[in-house]
## 1
Amino acid sequence: VGDVALYRTDRLVARCARTARPVLVPHVSAHDLPRIARDEHAARLLGEAGVHSYLAVPLIARSQVLGTLDLKRARNPVPFGQDDVLLASELAAHAAVSIDNARWYQRQRHAALALQRHLLPQHPPDAPGLDIAYRYQPAGAADETGGDWFDVIPLTGDRTALVVGDVMGSGINAAATMGQLRATARALGRLGLDPATVLTHLDAATADLGEAMATCVYAVYDPHTRLCHIATAGHLPPVHLRAGRPPRLVQLTTAVPLGVGGVPFHTTAFTLDEGDELVLYTDGLVETRDQDIDTRLLTLTDLLAGPHRPIEETCDLLLSALRRPDTHDDVALLIARAHA
């Protein structure tokens, strides 16, 4: 099982695939066995098993032959007939559609992943006053990939913008929308705008895309003042870690997702001292179907309350502890630690 079986072009199964027509041998003779089996050894085994009737039907989807359904009868003394050809052809048609759909979904997944990985930063730039760690993991399902992103944007005056967002929806369309929003956010950030103004313009840009909606959190850190200015658009709250106290969810003014329009965004400022950490993430890290979001956020902060560790290890810890193998959402995770 699982091994590749090679058939020469003169075999009956090859003729079935080549002509896209059923091949029926009601009464198999010793002369027929070499044309049915892939080699002499297999022909001998078929003969010993008492194979006396043979049928092959093509697997066809969208006018393309994907393979063949190869049937041999040994124990049942009744030979294959035209009724069997019709039944096998019907089964093969359903199987071909399922195989074709699976291949299409896999191609879509690969395309969305390739597009998203191309659009996400491969090696974020050095950020003055910050150590950066990040992870991206796609969804487990073939059609659920595509909308999460993160970014690290160098700004003037040694400042750095940290961005995490999540386009609603999935697949290659969500990945393409993500790419447009990420590029827009980078352009707006480099204009020196405060986070709330960036989100206001990003909201308008999202509305211009039609049906698109996204959540986003946008933060700007200044290593000289150690102030972090941050605004959110319907996104889950970041976590602020500081030695000597429990991790806390950053309290931000509630705002609607990007693309809704008509609702103002607000910037909040707090100090990110040396050794402090800021954890930004998308909902795929914490949301599940069997636990409420408050319970999952508490689990997140409990994990972060553990012993001090390198932020790369923290990324791995959060993903291994919170991420479930059957999840239907992708995850973007970005952690920044302030240093001297």
## 2
Amino acid sequence: MTNVTRLTIVGGGSWATALVKIFAEGGLQITWLHRNAEAATYIQKHKRNRNYLSFLELDFNNISTTHLAQEAIAASDYILFAVPSAYLAATIAEWKDFDFTGKKIIVSIKGVVGEQHVVPSIYLAQFFNVDADDILVIGGPCHAEEIALQRKTYMTIAGKDKQLTSQLATQLNSPYLRVIDNNDPLGVEYAAILKNIIGIAVGTASGMNYGDNFIAVLVSNALREVKAFLHAVDDVPRDLTQSAYFGDLFVTAYSEFSRNRTFGKMIGRGYNVREAQAHMNMVAEGYYAVKGIYAIAQAKQLHMPIVAAMYRVLYNQASPYVEFQLLEQSLS
């Protein structure tokens, strides 16, 4: 099987920037799609994203930028979506007539989409009328900042096509990056969504000055919630101790690079949602994810007290202090 050679990356944030770095270093010709001409032109000229990971200078030998969506889609055989879930529907709203024949979709979005609360891979499959089983999913555990700094990183590529995921993993491996292939794209996608909610919960606890002892119990209970949720929505054999699942959760819960933990910490310190969002230059996907995951849990009658508590705090303006007092009595 020949190497993947042409890839379009949709998104201009820190994670999209890190993915551009990884795939360009893997030898792919990258077309990087931005929302507007100004951003595309600036990055092409200065070789860096001034809004995200601005310290990172990219090698533009095989990177080109554009704001023209149809041009970007036509340029590549593989299309990687790395926009926040809250903006995915608006991003592709006018793409219905684009020709996706023979193109492979890759998803690296960590939230649910629309009122039906579907994962991005399913939303894209329905929108473009492609088979969801053909879509690849990129998971962690990894932060964009550490990729930019070339700190030792592990990343997951999940898909049903074992030959393709193995090939991409081999193609992208580098001295600082090890890519692990995985055959459970839906599980990896849901785990990446759930871990952001847990990251907010841990950050909230930290913001209210809970210590490591309580947070350890909070996280261990969160692991049970993740396990129960995955069992309910997609009951297939999987080892949740693999890094794509609980490893991704741990880095989001504990790392100071975690935007979801940072967002939660501000909530714990008394900021309301709008104030916390205004203080962040990046989107905390967990805020949007908690609404969808809570709705799914309710529909399936799942007992998920941490998810429920964060939903009440973020969407019903419940007091974090009261909710965590209640959690103290239910955790074990």
## 3
Amino acid sequence: MKHRIGIALIGTGGTIAGSASSPISSTHYKPASVGVEAIVASIPELSERYNLHTVQAFQLGSYDVIPQHWLSLLQQVERTLSDPAVDAAVITHGTDTLEETATFLHLTVQSAKPVLVIGAMRPSTAYSADGPANVINACTVAAHAKALGRGTMVVMNGRIHSALLVTKRHVSSVEAFDSGFEGALGEVADGAVRWFRPAHRIRPLALDQSCDLPRVDLISAYAGADDVAIKAFLAAGARALVHAGFGNGNAPPGTRETLKLLHQHDVWLARCSRWIPGSISRNSGMFNDDELGMITATGLQAHKLRIAIMVAMASGLDRAACQQWIDSFWE
């Protein structure tokens, strides 16, 4: 008898669990109003193909998700994947912060079993709902033998993305998620998976169940910026700042000197570029990163670099070890 893959469907809310007053409405709806069991019941093929285990971790619009939810979800995922009957986990999630939750799990889940994070751009009640196809496709990927050893992935609109690379790039289109310059990991359609590259997984860091994630704030460069926001974040207790700079991670004159002094306050500073792809250079003409104890992002976007810093600090890495860990993402 053929082994039936065991898949845990973990619900967290979002548009994929949303409902509207009319089936022709795709942008006006209430998110997180349908439970994960109802989502499963609406797709009978799932129970015919897989042994399903449903868990409602929480029920939120993803704009309400905070780091404490990430820690709770991490524990739920680890607990679920420790069950020998579960071969993979598929997490339904709102799209506003989907890539952040996926990145956190990618950096922390210890199990080698596949973890897929999915959402929908249209509510479950819409005539054109994209959620069911995303659920089926994610389960197809989760059951694929070559999904092992790839960490946490995002499956949306027939594309398979790395959590580290994917970004929501459109407010409402079903093609909202894209991996930009680096590209998707693969594609899935009609029960078939095609991988574009071999499996690669970063080294996840183990977090203690009782740990707290440190406060790490994000600052964006813009013409005429000063250091008022930096000082406010320091006063609020920030242990690290991520600076999304111009071009090669450069800073405007109103913030430059304050950023250079952060190491004197035992506050980490990580540099990346503002919303454009590409790896920034260490020890640039503006910043001597080695001398100032700064961390550079390689190719991480600002909001994902923030999460990497939070995880590194919570796991006990020092700055040098954190830099080595981040650099290893691209090896």
## 4
Amino acid sequence: MAVLEEFEQVEQPRRWRPGGRFVTGLCGVLTVLWLGYGTVRLVSLDDFGGFGYFAVALALTPYVVAGGAGLGVLMIIIGRRKPAFVLICVTLVLASLVSPRVLRNDQPDATGLNVRVLSANLRLGQADAQHLVDLVRDNHVQILAMQELTPVEVSELDAAGLSRLMPYNVYRAEPGGSGSGIASVFPLRELAEVPNTTFQMPVAIVDLPGNQDGEIVDVHAKPPIHDFATWSSELHHLPDPLPAGRVRMVVGDFNASFDHAAFRNVINRGYRDVAEQLGDGLVATWSQPWVPAMTIDHVLIDRRTAARGYAVLDLPGSDHHAIMADVQIPDHDPTAPPV
């Protein structure tokens, strides 16, 4: 009995875990960071204000999901199960916000004209004009929305043959990055621009064959990293879907993703994102060597219009990819309200 009591009094060695207290503390810090990030994203804290790098961080949510999954597994392997549990729970919540972008959605029963739209940010007019015209020609694009359109780029596009392919245009070309323009195979009628914007955002009615006309809004919002409040205000001033009659397409460089409350607020007015509708909502449209690629260019349609196709295309000379969307316009009484 004395031998047994002596054995019980001997302190059993602690289970060894790689890294000791330092790794345990690091796991705790990472878990707190993930928890804070998840809380901000879940409650849409950026809807109440923010600053430039805050907006950039929110756009990284898909990467945070992937990183959280990897770190959670690693913490389990090295024996830090409590922080791993919290981290994995946060990651699952964030994944539930991201995953709808890779799932296809049912489309409305639109039976009218199919229209192919291309949006291209020309990066201060430095994009390869001939390549862009080739994209238009080879893909039979019918409406082209351009951002950062300069007078020099207009001349280069015309020399490459754009005006022959698309004889109708509404151009607001300017030096630098503030110009924009719309070109089309269909007649265009210019409307008032989007108000209170830093860059040009032309708007035009598109005279489509059939019972419905279209309207296109060429979007170029100021980057939030330069001015968060202005960026949020410009997205707020984008027009709502039309309640009846012609269908409105809002196309271009929003400098925003689904992880920004300002962009989700636009969607919630009654728009749908073509890429997200077709399961391509995580395909990046912009990249820089020092920043992970992001999805900040979009084609938005109303709930009457069907998304039929989507592609992201290389555009040499630009830091954006061109995005191409096939949409089908409803063919019914143009005064009927949307479904």
